[in-house]
Batch of 2 targets.
Target 1
Amino acid sequence: GESVGLHLPTLSVQEGDNSIINCAYSNSASDYFIWYKQESGKGPQFIIDIRSNMDKRQGQRVTVLLNKTVKHLSLQIAATQPGDSAVYFCAENNQGGKLIFGQGTELSVKP
Amino acid sequence: NAGVTQTPKFRVLKTGQSMTLLCAQDMNHEYMYWYRQDPGMGLRLIHYSVGEGTTAKGEVPDGYNVSRLKKQNFLLGLESAAPSQTSVYFCASSYVPGTYGYTFGSGTRLTVV
């Protein structure tokens, strides 16, 4: 269910370290997943996606892992930089024609 | 630049006033969406459209109306604004959902006093 009025989960990492952001999705029938990055005052931006027939997908400095058994999605950011500080959302396509977004995780990168 | 454009970027309304938020996309996307984002919460779908002339309710439609008279435009209306509608509103568009991600606009920050 949805949490009302709670602060976002926060992950704080040192610049240069790797970051792992986790997401649990709700529908075992979901077949497409996306990670979005939202910087302060801006709209969400597409980072990387993965389909349910894959376990792993890599982009530039980012990797998404999908574990369908436990309905878990993770985003790994290598060599985290200050510019990576943002809120990260996972989203699932539940075959209803719409994406369902998670609550989000705030990533803070310490110089 | 191609993408999704939202107007206005900021607005303050008094309780009971009405307004319309405009979303325009130039990517020839069939699908368009209106979301609201509140502090500490994810994006909640208000209304969406699967094509010109069609609209459907999302998760939190009460107090809002929408219209999609042209494929490139999706309007969100508040007939009688309430303080509970203070939020940041995002429009998005996409090709076939579930095949590609959404492209989002930069948001409209609405305050109802």
Target 2
Amino acid sequence: GAVVSQHPSRVICKSGTSVKIECRSLDFQATTMFWYRQFPKKSLMLMATSNEGSKATYEQGVEKDKFLINHASLTLSTLTVTSAHPEDSSFYICSAIRTVGNEQFFGPGTRLTVL
Amino acid sequence: AQSVTQLDSQVPVFEEAPVELRCNYSSSVSVYLFWYVQYPNQGLQLLLKYLSGSTLVESINGFEAEFNKSQTSFHLRKPSVHISDTAEYFCAVSLSGGYQKVTFGIGTKLQVIP
């Protein structure tokens, strides 16, 4: 099946630093990717929709200046958490839409811990 | 906007017993329905989906779900669970007609007891 990777799988950073998370579709092109955040014992919360070659669409309540999304190619989207704080600690998951079959494939997630 | 309700946050069940994980949705238009599974320390995997056609859909590992439009439900069932089925299960919904963003339920943790 289609594969989506995320890098890094885990990251620990100091408060105030920025962290970049990559999401790649390994064997298909994805014009649309999604970024989710998963809180402990909670469901996935959609943060933003990333479209190749255009600006991301953010969900209500998500700070676009804090969570920068870049979808520079048909196989790569990046999420940069700027000036991270402990409350940004979470599990971030991306997904990519494969046009053929119109199916969504999820990455394995990135565990961010901000000290 | 559509929404998903998973009433059970945790479901403990003995190995080889049957299980049902409940899911109800709310939408004023037609929808697609999904069940995803998340094993410990792993990402989400699609278990099964209903897009159209037969209301009973099955997965390759013995799970099945039935779309019931009148009851707005999409419950997940398995007649005999295994230890390896221990995971978090998420019901999800999207609007039908091309790809739409997906709304997830809060998840149900299935704990299979030996």
